[in-house]
Amino acid sequence: MMDEDRYIKVILPLKLAWEPCYRVSEEVRTGTRVSVTFAGRKYTGVVSATGVTPDMDPGRILPVNAVERHMEPIGEKELALWRFMADYYLCTIGEVYKQAYPAVKTAGEEVRARAEERQELMKARTEELYRKRIRSLEERLVKKEAALAGRHNAKVTAELEAGRDRILAELKEAGRKLEALGKEADSSAPTGMTNACHPEETEGRRRDPDSFASPGMTGETAGQVKKAFTEGKTVLLQGGKMRLEVILETARRTLESGRDVLMLVPEITLSRQLQHTLREAFGEAVTVFHSAETAGNRREVATALRRGDRPWLVLGTRSALFLPFRNLGLVIVEEEHDIAYKQDGTPRYGARDTAVMLGNIHGAHVLLSSPTPSLESLYNCITGRYALVRTPLEESAMEIVDTSVEARKNGMVGDLSRILIARIGYTLDNDGKVLVLRPWGPFDDLKEQVGKLFPGRDGGIRFSTVHEARRTDLEGISLLALLNADTLMDKHDFRADEKAVQTLEQFRGRLSGQMLVQTRQGEHPVYLMGDDYALRLLKERKAFRFPPYSRMIDIIVRDGNAARLSKLSAMLAHSLREFNPEGPFAPFRGREPEQDARIIRIMLPRNRHLPETKRKIAAVIGDFEKSCKYTGHVTLDVDPL
């Protein structure tokens, strides 16, 4: 009956500016997964609102295909994070849902749900058969007892008693099997992670976090972190290797309080380097979540967090933000400055800022960690929003070789300075290892030059790009040589100097050997910066009203048709003239401009009107896409890196 129907709104994994309304004949809650049809296709959606009053003819509202009782519901805090991301990054909540629960993951859940439904059906049928069997045996037992009540000779009585005993035995066995079927549901907890030990249970085989460094120094710094947490502030932890010791101590306190810890790293390779250290400290309380893990392992992590019967430390990349935390107590973002925390596809979210919001939603503490923090985080410390805690910064000496000066005095042999050649020769003579970096590859020409200079000895020399080396273990490297360092200071990127300093300091902090940098600009401020480099860069940013003193939005237009791209990107820029856009201009990827893309850049002041202004910009772009039938060509990048 129509009057028995209830109306709900559903989030679909689509780019929709609205949430479709459906009718359902049974009671459901917000977060329940439902199978629905939209535009002729079936989707698994999430109930976002119940008790909805339809704003259209109820007869036109489609019913849900099924309520997915066997698929895990989405928690209120998960939905809160999705809504924040959709609002802040100017995308739809459906696009966030699609990112959090991609099609492959949802399809796997659906397969498991169907299997569980079949198992439950078979179990119900089996239980009913046993119940019928028990009823039949009870009826036979009543007849046997009645027969035994009569007068019989000894032989007949013995036969009747034997028959009764057989029925009793069969009845007992049937009852036992029925009871066992009932217990199967209670003992069907997921395997894999269920055998993991509680932190206290691994005491005999894990390393005490206090043993990683001087307990006094670590404890003092961890105490500063704890004090800032009690004041309700996000903490920015800056420094060298001791940062990890402070992180371990802070995580230990959180786990001992019975709450979960999420530790984010920018890339999978760094996760693998940290796994051993974390498991030494916390044993099987540590679990890993990233795309290189199997689907089964990732599912077990999510299941364990939903179950919440013990605290976990989850080590993961940015996708771990979407895990169903129920008892989150601490969020750690290691190497918080790293550009890999920015999602490249839609929604183009920043994992660092999203992690801060995740912590706020859960009432969890947030710890950002880096040897060279982002200017945005340092700015938040200056304004009092974050608390800055420092640890000592270990660094190797960095020698700068100005190749333009060396060339004038015949100090260059191909791409290598004679100074570097001498350093490599000395390192090889002493059985050391050399790592030669360049901002780009390939290395065939460079390898040929080195082979001629050090014939038969180049086995101790490795080659890598800067990006690859950021994720490489530098243990055992005696000499790190960076060539063509000038390309790090890309004139097309206002963040180039900041990124260059972070790259150089990252290598210095991880290197126990020497570091030599070849550059044509030996007097560039990047090489001369001391501890005040951040303040100098912030002063420059403020003068030009660049972030963090403003908010930046890049509207990226892509089109394989050059003429159409030029025309429509110009039209879009004109439609946004109210917001004083820059461009359109071609973005640079490496050293060359992209021919099939244009960027329209908008700088907005940081004020209370910012959220409303961002929504207006999104609305103008939406209207442009509809009127020009240009859907699918425009992407918004809030806080681009």
What would your notes on this structure say?
- The chain is α/β, with parallel strands linked by helices and 641 residues long.
- The protein has 5 domains: 2-75, no CATH class; 112-186; 200-383, P-loop containing nucleotide triphosphate hydrolases (Rossmann fold); 398-542, Rossmann fold (3-Layer(aba) Sandwich), CATH 3.40.50; 549-638, Alpha-Beta Plaits.
- Helices cover 43% and strands 20% of the residues.
- The protein contains 19 helices and 25 strands.
- It has a 7-stranded parallel sheet, with helices on both faces. Strands 2-1-4-3-5 form a 5-stranded antiparallel sheet.
- Helix 1 crosses helix 2 (93-100) and helix 3 (103-148) runs antiparallel to helix 4.
- The longest helix is centred in the N-terminal third of the chain and has 46 residues, at 103-148.
- The chain is globular, with a radius of gyration of 32 Å.
- The two termini are 55 Å apart.
- The relative contact order is 0.07.
Write the layout of secondary structure elements.
Blueprint: E1 6-11, E2 21-24, E3 33-38, E4 41-49, E5 66-67, H1 76-88, H2 93-100, H3 103-148, H4 154-186, H5 215-230, E6 234-238, H6 242-256, E7 260-264, H7 268-282, E8 286-289, H8 295-307, E9 313-316, E10 328-334, H9 351-362, E11 365-370, H10 375-382, E12 386-390, E13 398-402, H11 403-408, E14 412-413, E15 416-417, H12 418-429, E16 433-438, H13 444-453, E17 461-465, H14 466-470, E18 477-482, H15 496-510, E19 514-519, H16 525-528, H17 533-544, E20 550-558, H18 562-575, E21 582-585, E22 588-589, E23 592-593, E24 597-605, H19 610-627, E25 634-638
Parallel strand pairs: 6-11, 6-12, 7-9, 7-10, 8-9, 10-11, 13-19, 16-17, 16-18, 18-19
Antiparallel strand pairs: 1-2, 1-4, 3-4, 3-5, 14-15, 20-24, 20-25, 21-24, 22-23
Helix pairs in contact: 1-2, 1-9, 3-4, 5-6
